[in-house]
């Protein structure tokens, strides 16, 4: 599944149990019977997908996939299984981002409910799922976006208990028909946190006025204003007008409400990357089939040099998206209170996979050209979604900022202690590249090979223990991922430790461009040691994002190689993918070099990261052979 594209007509979903296979196949069969003509027509005419939701209700799709085992009432097929949820996300993205969206926001709406200690609310949600209802996540507001400290959804205590809620929410998927809407708000009788002061550590008392509660979109005091997008999906603006909130409707209060918001995003928005993968796979089939069958000036379009480059890069990029996503599932499913590495890999799934999908779509647009605008093509229908996924509530900005919190602990394993000496060597920031490479390499080698001795130092012994994790297995077993609903506080990210990232790159260093990329990664590590960002730079978001573009490429590449080892991926495709990574890493290094805030040392060391990938006509031809073989392999039923 990670080495080839998903083909609905041949995929058998063999990695899953019988009932999961049946429901995944039933979903594919539903869309193929629905047909491409009707699919595109209903998208253009913005027809609410009642027919699809009737199928969901009839087959109990959402009920089976989205009910945790604790709420399953003894049904052995109900569980929260990240692997099969991800597969459903890919299938729905493959057929239309609008179908993925109704599923995605139902997942988000359920997040605060399944995390709650409110047994009554959870029982109500399970019953609504069983009856085919959808859910919504009422967090965002038009004036405040995702700045939830500043929420204007205000709850006033009422005599005899409970509250009266008044305020508006904006950009709320499924807000038109959701059986339960998980709404974030604040109490009128408690102080509000100044969001401009968010970097300060808040007290429990300051958090005490915030809460999550469940609302019903059918209630008379729930005022649906409009659909804020011109689309088949319904993205609601709604107001609550003296909406009665009973104690039985309260899901979370205080700091736990903020944790529930963050942890829901960890669980739900993980699926952004899988929706992107599905959409890109469908688009890839269309683009290659069109280009390979079109003759211009006596040549197939796929024979033009610029098209060959676009297709080779796009195919490798897509395989990389799939490899990363499949391995990220394992980290999500194996997570526990002592292993929270999934929080970094989750952020990259949301940010990097969706952005690679956007870039792939742009490149395929240059291949498919005018055909990509015609009204019988999937390509234009998914285009808005592909450009939207990285931008949903600041997905890239939020997740880049989140990822940067992990950078020191990811880049510097405890075995790298000696590398810290670089910053104390006179002139290390501006010394010749060769000298810095030699010194940093020697320090790194010394650190890693002297690790047993270093462990004797009490402080480092503790750090080594915290960075020791058992190998993460492939997780496609029929288990309930119950930890995701008891993730605990969303703080403490700086305490998460990672295993040494270099090991898997060294295993694949026989592939030419993996070796080049490893050189770049080590040079980046030396940059961080020799020219550490200053206190002022650590407050400069523009500068940090340039640094983050470099950093996040490393864990992205790491998980790709881990999955490549598991799946036995084609080394020609990996070489092409890392050819792409070398080019993009070099571009990001030049961006860092030109940043006004960069110090002279950082400018100098940033140029150490620039490399030229190693070309290979043989490898390129092998990848192109796989790309052109896609022509005619899949066409959706008319």
Automatic annotation (TrEMBL):
Keywords: FAD, Flavoprotein
Cofactor dependence: FAD
UniProt domain Acyl-CoA dehydrogenase/oxidase C-terminal: residue ranges: 258-401
GO molecular-function terms, A-Z: acyl-CoA dehydrogenase activity; flavin adenine dinucleotide binding
A cellular component annotation (GO) from this entry: plasma membrane
Domain of life: Bacteria
InterPro entries on file: Acyl-CoA_Oxase/DH_mid-dom_sf, AcylCo_DH-like_C, AcylCo_DH/oxidase_C, AcylCoA_DH/ox_N_sf, AcylCoA_DH/oxidase_NM_dom_sf
Similarity section: Belongs to the acyl-CoA dehydrogenase family.
Official protein name in the record: Acyl-CoA dehydrogenase
């Amino acid at each position: 599944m990670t080495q080839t594209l998903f083909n609905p007509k041949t995929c058998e979903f063999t990695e899953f149990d019988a009932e999961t296979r049946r429901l995944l196949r039933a979903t594919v069969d539903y869309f193929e019977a629905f047909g491409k003509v009707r699919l595109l027509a209903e998208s253009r005419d913005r027809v609410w997908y009642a027919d699809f939701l009737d199928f969901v209700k009839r087959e109990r799709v959402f009920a089976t996939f989205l009910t945790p085992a604790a709420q399953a009432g003894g049904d052995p097929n109900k569980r929260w299984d990240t692997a099969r949820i991800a597969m459903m996300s890919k299938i729905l993205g493959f057929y239309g981002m609008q179908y993925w969206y109704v599923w995605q926001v139902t997942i988000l709406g359920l997040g605060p409910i399944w995390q709650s200690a409110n047994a009554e609310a959870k029982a109500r949600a399970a019953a609504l799922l069983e009856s085919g209802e959808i859910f919504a996540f009422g967090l965002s507001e038009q004036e405040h976006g995702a700045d939830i400290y500043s929420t204007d959804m205000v709850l006033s205590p009422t005599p005899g208990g409970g509250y009266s809620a008044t305020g508006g929410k904006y950009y709320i998927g499924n807000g038109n028909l959701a059986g339960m809407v998980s709404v974030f708000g604040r109490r009128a009788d408690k102080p509000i946190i100044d969001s401009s002061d968010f970097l300060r550590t808040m007290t429990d008392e300051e958090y005490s006025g915030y809460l999550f509660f469940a609302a019903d979109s059918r209630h008379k005091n729930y005022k649906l204003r409009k659909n804020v997008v011109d689309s088949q999906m319904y993205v609601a603006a709604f107001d609550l007008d003296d909406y009665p909130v009973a104690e039985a409707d309260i899901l979370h209060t205080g700091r736990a409400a903020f944790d529930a918001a963050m942890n829901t995003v960890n669980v739900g928005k993980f699926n952004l990357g899988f929706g992107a993968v599905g959409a890109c796979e469908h688009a890839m089939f269309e683009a290659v089939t069109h280009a390979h069958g079109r003759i211009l000036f006596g040549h197939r379009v796929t024979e033009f040099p610029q098209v060959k480059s676009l297709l080779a890069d796009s195919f490798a990029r897509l395989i990389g998206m799939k490899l990363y996503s499949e391995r990220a599932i394992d980290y999500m499913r194996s997570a526990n209170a002592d292993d929270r590495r999934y929080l970094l890999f989750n952020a990259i799934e949301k940010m990097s996979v969706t952005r690679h999908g956007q870039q792939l779509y742009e490149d395929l647009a240059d291949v498919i050209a005018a055909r990509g605008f015609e009204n019988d093509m999937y390509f234009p229908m998914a285009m808005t979604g592909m450009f939207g996924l990285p931008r949903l509530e600041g997905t890239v900005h939020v997740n880049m900022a989140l990822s940067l919190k992990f950078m020191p602990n990811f880049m510097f394993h405890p075995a790298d202690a000696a590398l810290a000496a670089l910053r104390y060597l006179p002139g290390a920031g501006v010394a010749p590249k060769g000298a810095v490479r030699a010194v940093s390499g020697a320090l790194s080698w010394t650190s890693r090979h002297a690790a047993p001795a270093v462990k004797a130092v009490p402080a480092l012994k503790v750090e080594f223990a915290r960075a020791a994790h058992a190998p993460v297995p492939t997780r496609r077993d029929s288990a309930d991922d119950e930890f995701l609903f008891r993730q605990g506080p969303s703080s403490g990210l700086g305490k998460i430790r990672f295993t040494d990232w270099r090991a898997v790159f060294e295993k694949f260093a026989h592939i030419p461009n993996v070796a080049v990329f490893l050189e770049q990664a080590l040079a980046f590590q030396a940059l961080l040691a020799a020219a550490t960002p200053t206190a002022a730079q650590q407050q400069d978001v523009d500068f940090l994002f340039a640094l983050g573009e470099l950093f996040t490429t490393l864990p992205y590449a790491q998980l790709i190689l881990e999955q490549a080892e598991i799946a036995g991926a084609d080394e020609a495709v990996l070489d092409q993918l890392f050819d792409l990574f070398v080019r993009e890493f070099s571009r990001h290094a030049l961006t860092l070099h030109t940043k006004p805030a960069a110090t002279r040392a950082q400018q100098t060391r940033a140029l150490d990261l620039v490399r030229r990938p190693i070309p290979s006509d043989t490898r390129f031809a092998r990848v192109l052979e796989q790309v052109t073989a896609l022509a005619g392999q899949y066409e959706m039923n008319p």
